[in-house]
C-alpha cells in the first residue's frame, strides 16, 4: 500500500446535523473545520454551514490543510422528472469539481423515510417497486455518465430508511447498473445497523467501492431503537451511531480487506451524534487514534 493510497477525512455531521439543524446549531463553520484539522484529518465532506462560493471555501479549508472529498446529493428519480434531477445534479457536480473532489455520493430520496420523525425506521422501511428499480438504475447510469464528463465518479450511498438499505438491495442496485458509471459508497455503520455483516458487501463489491464511510453502532441503542420503534432521526439523537472503535462493529477485518485488496481513495469518519452529548473534537480525536492504531493509516 502506498502512503497516499488512502486519505482520511471526516464529515461535519458530528458538529452540525443537516437533517436536524438543532443538533449543533450553535457551532460555527470555522470551529468545525478547525477542529477537523486539529484532530489530524486531511479532508472533509460538505455541511450546510459551509460557504457556497468555492473560492471562499477553498481559502478557509486551505488555511487548515483540508480539502473536500465528497458532498451528499439527494436524488428524486422516483418522484420527479429525470431532467429536473439531472439539472440539480450537474450544478452539484460543478461545485464539487471546482473544489477538486473526485466522487459524489448520491441516494434516492423519492420514497425515503430517513427524514421522517413520525415513522419507525425498521417497521416502515420503504421498498422499490419494479418500475422504481428501473427508474433508479437507468437514472443512475445516466447521471454517472454525466458526472464522468466532469471528472467525477458517482457513488451510491445505501442508507437506513431507504429503498437501498439491505445487502440484498445493495446487490440488486450494483447488478442493475453499469460498473463503469456507478460505484458504491460503502458505509459499514448502515449495514451493521440494518442487522447484517458489513464485511460481506465489502468483499463482494470492493472493486466498485469508490468511497468509504466509517461509523460504529452501539448495539444496546440499536436494540432499543427496534423495541421502541424509533425513527431514524430519533436513533441519531439517542446515540445509535458513534465513531469507529466506540461501538460494537469489529473494524479489524474491514480495515484488512480494504488495505490488502488495494482500496485507493478516502476513508471518511461519519458518525452523526448530538454534539451536546458527544463533544465533536473529543470524538474526532478518538476516531483518529483508533484508525491509526488499528489500520496504520
Automatic annotation (TrEMBL):
InterPro entries on file: IolE, IolE/MocC, IolE/XylAMocC-like, Xyl_isomerase-like_sf, Xyl_isomerase-like_TIM-brl
The alphabetical list of record keywords is: Cobalt, Lyase, Manganese
Example GO molecular function: myo-inosose-2 dehydratase activity
What superkingdom does the record give?
A: Bacteria
Ranges annotated as spanning the membrane: none
List the taxonomic lineage.
Bacteria, Pseudomonadati, Spirochaetota, Spirochaetia, Spirochaetales
Task: Tell me where in this chain the Xylose isomerase-like TIM barrel domain is found.
Answer: 36-293
Task: Specify the enzyme's EC class, one word.
Answer: lyase
The protein's name is 2-keto-myo-inositol dehydratase
Q: Which organism is it from?
A: Parasphaerochaeta coccoides (strain ATCC BAA-1237 / DSM 17374 / SPN1) (Sphaerochaeta coccoides)
Pfam family of the protein (one) = AP_endonuc_2
Amino acid at each position: 500500500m502506498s502512503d497516499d493510497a488512502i486519505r482520511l477525512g471526516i464529515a461535519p455531521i458530528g458538529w452540525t446535523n443537516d437533517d436536524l439543524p438543532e443538533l449543533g446549531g450553535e457551532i460555527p463553520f470555522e470551529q468545525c473545520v478547525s477542529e477537523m484539522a486539529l484532530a489530524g484529518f486531511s479532508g472533509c465532506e460538505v455541511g450546510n454551514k459551509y460557504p457556497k462560493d468555492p473560492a471562499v471555501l477553498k481559502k478557509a479549508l486551505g488555511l487548515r490543510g483540508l480539502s473536500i472529498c465528497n458532498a451528499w446529493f439527494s436524488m428524486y428519480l422516483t418522484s420527479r422528472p429525470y431532467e429536473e434531477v439531472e439539472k440539480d445534479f450537474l450544478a452539484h457536480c460543478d461545485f464539487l469539481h471546482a473544489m477538486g473532489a473526485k466522487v459524489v455520493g448520491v441516494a434516492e430520496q423519492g420514497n425515503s423515510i430517513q427524514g421522517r420523525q413520525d415513522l419507525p425506521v425498521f417497521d416502515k422501511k420503504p421498498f422499490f417497486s419494479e418500475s422504481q428499480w428501473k427508474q433508479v438504475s437507468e437514472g443512475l447510469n445516466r447521471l454517472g455518465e454525466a458526472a464522468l464528463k466532469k471528472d467525477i465518479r458517482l457513488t451510491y450511498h445505501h442508507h437506513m430508511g431507504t429503498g437501498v438499505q439491505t445487502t440484498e438491495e445493495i446487490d440488486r442496485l450494483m447488478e442493475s447498473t453499469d460498473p463503469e458509471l456507478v460505484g458504491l459508497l460503502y458505509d459499514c455503520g448502515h449495514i451493521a445497523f440494518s442487522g447484517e455483516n458489513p464485511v460481506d458487501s465489502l468483499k463482494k463489491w470492493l472493486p466498485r467501492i469508490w468511497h468509504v464511510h466509517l461509523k460504529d453502532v452501539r448495539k444496546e441503542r440499536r436494540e432499543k431503537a427496534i423495541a421502541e420503534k424509533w425513527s431514524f432521526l430519533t436513533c441519531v439523537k439517542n446515540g445509535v451511531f458513534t465513531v469507529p472503535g466506540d461501538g460494537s462493529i469489529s473494524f479489524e477485518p474491514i480495515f484488512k480487506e480494504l488495505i490488502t485488496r488495494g482500496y485507493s481513495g478516502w476513508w471518511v469518519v461519519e458518525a452523526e451524534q448530538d454534539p451536546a452529548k458527544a463533544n465533536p473534537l473529543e470524538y474526532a480525536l478518538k476516531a483518529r487514534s483508533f484508525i491509526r492504531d488499528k489500520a496504520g493509516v
